[in-house]
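We give its fold:
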Amino acid sequence: MLQRLKGTALGRQARSVVLRARRHAYPRPEVASVQAVSLEAEHLHVLVRFPGIGDLDPAGLAPFARLEYADRSLREEVPSEVMRMRLDQANDGTRSLTALLSLPSPTLGIPRALVVGDRTGHLPGTSVPLGEPELTRLARQSLEGYTPAEADAAYDAWFRSHRATPRQLEAQRREAARWDDGPLYSVVVPLYHTPVPYLVEMAESVLGQTYPRLELVMVNSTPQDADMSREVARIAAADARVTVVTLDHNLGISKNTEAGVKAAKGDWIAFFDHDDVLEPNILFEYAMRVREDPSTDMIYCDEDLLVDGTYRRPAFKSDWSLVQEETNNYVCHMLTIRRELVDGFYSRYDGAQDHRLTLVAGSKARHVGHVPKVLYHWRAHPGSTADSAVAKAESFEAGRLAIEDHLGDLGLPAKVESIPTMPHCYRFMLDFPEPPLVSAVVMGMDQPAADARAQGLRDILTWPNLELIPQIGTLGEGYADCVNEGVARATGDYVLVVASDVVVQSPDLAEQLLSLAMRRGHAIAGTKVLCPDGTIQCAGMTLQSEGAVPIGRFLESFYGTGKGYLVLPHDLSAVSGECVLFRQEVFQTVGGAVSGLDETNWSVALCIQAGRLGLGTCIAPMAHVARCLPPAAAPFDDEEAKAWGRQQERLLKMFPAEFRTRDPYYSASWSSDGLFRLRGDED
């Protein structure tokens, strides 16, 4: 097969193929999947994923990699310098190995397998050329290496080129000086054996703000630390904006913080860690948000880590999502709350006290502001939470309690549990004492297929109050009309639509989706859609200037990028339509599915229309459905690419405002391809 590609237009244009997973020859239950192969400038590239590797150490495996051929007597050793390997760990603790091989085209014929250690990935003899749009995306990610923003070594230079310039900072000082009605910001900092160099840098970053109306409230909980206390006194004597609260002894982080809040005089309370650093324009940016929207009651910004003078691991955040905050404290820094919304401080939340504050204030706030700029630097050093999640392991249970109590306060009793492989991350499932009726519109290519798929769905789902509606549903531009026909027969308050080419894999899918769609201010919940090889086809959609873009395409299903964005529930602008649950009332209000949209994009229109009614969309990434493409199919061929383009043109014409503005739930600092890279000039 590869020999036939040589010298052809297909080979010269570096066409790639996606190959189906095949069981390997060794007596193991796991499946090794060959994810991509290409012939590029007479070079062979192979990407193979080996799941379930246990405690295997990949570091020593590259010297033992080899290619095998149809003639079993022929083998070709793979030099270690042309093999790259990545170790991944899923939520359930299972570990998988991804191997990428790149070397000159072999001279021994057509390779039939890549062997790494005792694991074999077979190379099937059939292939399907991809269309150019999909080839470009797959090649960039799989064959040239994938680096999300938080792991990109270029981030330090990227940040330094994007931060406010000295000229901009001076302009901010002049602008802020003209504001006679600016609020007072109290920056509260609990101190605990703070190293003097960190203390000095922290204080200077507060007192050097371009916005002048501030006070720095330092709470000294370790007055016996003579060096630290001496420096605290010096800082206070040098600037009248500094207030010092000295405690007799350490009361714990919650009560220490409470003492600072009681002494603060500000209209707003900002919570700042004792060893971190602020950008000089953070309070100016916050004050601007309040001036633009006086209903703002809470504000936060993007952040990164400061490691020995280098900026690393940016946390680019979405706009406010209470659902996402209920799975992990993604808001984190610099949390700033209007004084009257600052809740009490309780020692039971020590280690997660800021998470508790965010949940309580965020659920009461008229508006939550997000400044999508990196303005906070979380210093990583031994013993800090930034350096290691296990450094403050007691905060795990405190975070779980904060979420559980918050949901109880909202009248939403739920079971909340920690995710063992994701520190400080949680999942919840609401209790349903009176399960609402869910009408499941199950698509099939013909009536017998629809009937069989509907019965199969009943066998899979654990939801007790289910109405099955088998519906003939062909894929393509007529799909939305099929959705309307099926929903017209539904009697439930909630409708679940399942496309004809996906298989539901999560028995509790209805419970997961209802836990989101039933929430106040929400109406729609979708799932993560997987490719046949287990990688992601779509984990929601981001609205970009070129149209609706699938998020996370071809990444591993449990890839941890974007602070759990591909794993944890959260708000987003739209979900794909292969498997989606929505409120029947909202569907009818907007006039149903827009005719002419396909199985992916009909729900994009529905989500945008619901958003115009003030109702949000969420995704439950742990609820899985998988595409079941026929063996000869590829994600895009030329005709499919043209059809996709027509769909996007129609969405852009229908909803120009939504596609022109920044997507609030996908950071503008991420690449526009939905893959969480650093955004470059080409974006």
